[in-house]
Amino acid sequence: MPVQLLKIIEGQSETPLPSHLQREDLKHLQEGCDYTNKYIQGIVTLSYPLTKLRDGTDFCKIVVQDSDNSCSQINRITVFIYGKMAEDCAKIIHHGETFIAAGFKVIKLHTEREDARHDCHLEASEEAGSTIYTVAPKYVYTPLNHLKDGTVVNLYGVVKFFKPPYISKGTDYCSIVTLVDQSNVKLTCSLFSGNLDFLPKIYKVGDIVRFHRIKIKEYNGQMQGITSGGFASLTFDGTVGAPVVPRTSSRVYTFMDEEQKTIEELRIWAASNISISGPATKLSGVQPMLFFDLTCQLVGKAKVDGSSFLLKVWDGTECPYPTWKVPVEAKDLEGEKVLLHQLRNLAVDILVYDNHVQLAESLKIGSFLRIYSIHAKEASADNEDVSHMEFHLHGGTCYGRGIGVLPESNPDVKELKEFLESVTLTDSQSMESCSMDIDSTFGNVTDLELHLQRCQQLSVTVLTDHQNLSNTELKTITNSPAPQQYRIRAKLRTYKPQKLHQSVKLHCSKCNSLQEVPDRDDFDFILHGSAGTAPNPELHNTCWYESVTWTTQEQKQREIAIHFVKHDEMLQHPEDTLIMIEGGTLKEIWKLTKRFKCIIPVRSTEDDLELLDLSAPFLLKGNVKYYGCKQCSTPKPLKNLSSIAAEQQPSWEPTEIAQVFFCYLILNFLKNMQSRFCLMVFYSSFNTSYSSVLFQEKFFQIPASEILTSNFLQQKMQMTMNALCPPGRKLGDLPWLECFIKSYNVRDSMKNQVCYQIFDTTVAEDVV
């Protein structure tokens, strides 16, 4: 194995180095010599993140210091590592660890030597026959009740709640995990990675995880964990007596004998102290209005429309209710036709929506899945006396919704495979008759019409809580004091604004102010105004950013300055770089957003750079703009950004930047900024009363921060409103909505007003 970990037991390596290897002193290394049977050893003093060369080859760079000759004039050397070896090293090599390299090549540098660094560098790769050894450190694990803000720790914990990995709003995958241990302290961790395999492989509540190098931050009085540079994880089955076998995609990891005792102790504690989920529900045990997890095998899949996708699955048992067959064209359905025909009474159709679609499309036929929080709904069409069961995986990640792919080594998969092999299937028919049967099942026009009729009968809203509340008349609600909560059954008579792009507002929960989203012209006007002040050259090229200036060639010349924020005193790749710009126009800034990760428009003062007027966004990332509150925000100096730049792997996430500038976080536009959508007027048949209610983005399940820049989301919202309040329909023909509303008081200097807002209700994903 080209990259190996050496365990040190009582001062000696458990696996000694090969006997033919001889150690070479750093100061004696020369270009042109054969180092096939030689090795160097030292301490890692600097390591850089994994990156790619122009030809796509993985590459990482470390600096090693000779630990035995630290006072020598030449005691450090740079090592370049290429290919798969670089990817493996990036996962396990960290600052302060012992590093050994054998079979390397020595290359002479053509630049002047720095400090005590060697005037050559080393190159290592599998192709060159190199081997890297690193000494496994003695890890210390921190109990959850001893965590401190700002530390990077190693820890063990039992999974109390988790969200399967999903694609975040950026390009990374994200997983949310809540851990507990014997201290009864809870830690919620937000884990991000561009590679799905690098996230922990958690399959159920009760699994045990080991996290190395997780960063701890305090927020609202509670500790939270986030991934940091070098984060690594192992996952273990939490069942008492199960084999202690780690789940990980890494080929190289440490696991000491004493850690097995830690896992066994956590298993015993968890068995009696936390509610560990039992076996997943079988299809034979499904009941209407149930939300359940299902372990199953995928036998077919098909795209339904832009926001939904069909999965055909089975678990060897038969649902006790007739099930809905989603109408799709036979040519669009992937899967073995003979097997699909044989399973026609055992396989069920699950419609998945929105953020789950991309993962569903990538699933391989025949793979074993665990689908979390499936919604079983009973429905019927007008021309049907018998109801049928529908299965939906709604959008979002609430309640742990998601899809997990299980390996065949998983105990639940082994058990399921044995059971599936024992099931007697219907005799297979000829391909011709099978094809005709499937075509009639999925491609029939009559079936499509029936599907549309069924959709008209589906509930247009989903109640996510408080099922015990009974309906209240609108007249009773409007005559009752606030605050209170109600359940209503009503029709949507009208809504404002009719131009839905005007429905997005900025709301600050800190001062409760509601603000319009500044339009393009406002932003452009602010930029032109700031361009009248020339950049201050005394503020250029500081220790944490590098500056470039130039003058435009247009008739009215402008001076533009761009400040590139550095990391480790080095400029990063554009896609990882935050820049600050002075004197740029809106058109120029939009061009830069396609090239750089984040952009902050600024202007010069005598002493420092500062943000523009808060009517302008303080940050642009892609096509999304982020705003501060004009009423209560007091921005801090821009130099505070240097604290993020000093992190091992700066993320430049808007929430982190907002924390530095405003000391509070922002959601969608910023954590404390929610976006409110529509004012709707409801009609109740109980007493022909009317009431106005404010709806928020959670109801629509559409990110407010994205709708202004997405034609698709605007169309989706318009279609949703057309479904809730079809244009041209008489009042009697409008659909009924079930939802929860709460009343609250709004006071100003003149009067007190009672307002209403919807909560714990969402639009059903299958409405549009």
Automatic annotation (TrEMBL):
GO BP: regulation of telomere maintenance via telomerase; telomere capping
One GO term describing the cellular component: nuclear telomere cap complex
Keyword annotations: Chromosome, DNA-binding, Nucleus, Telomere
Cellular localisation: Chromosome, Telomere; Nucleus
Listed SMART domains: Telo_bind
SUPFAM superfamilies in the cross-refs: Nucleic acid-binding proteins
Domain Telomeric single stranded DNA binding POT1/Cdc13 span(s) in chain numbering: 141-271
Pfam families documented for this protein: POT1, POT1_C_insert, POT1PC
GO molecular function per UniProt: G-rich strand telomeric DNA binding; telomerase inhibitor activity
UniProt key word Transmembrane: no
Record family assignment: Belongs to the telombin family.
PANTHER family per UniProt: PROTECTION OF TELOMERES 1, PROTECTION OF TELOMERES PROTEIN 1
Protein name: Protection of telomeres protein 1
Organism the protein comes from: Emberiza fucata
Gene of this entry: Pot1
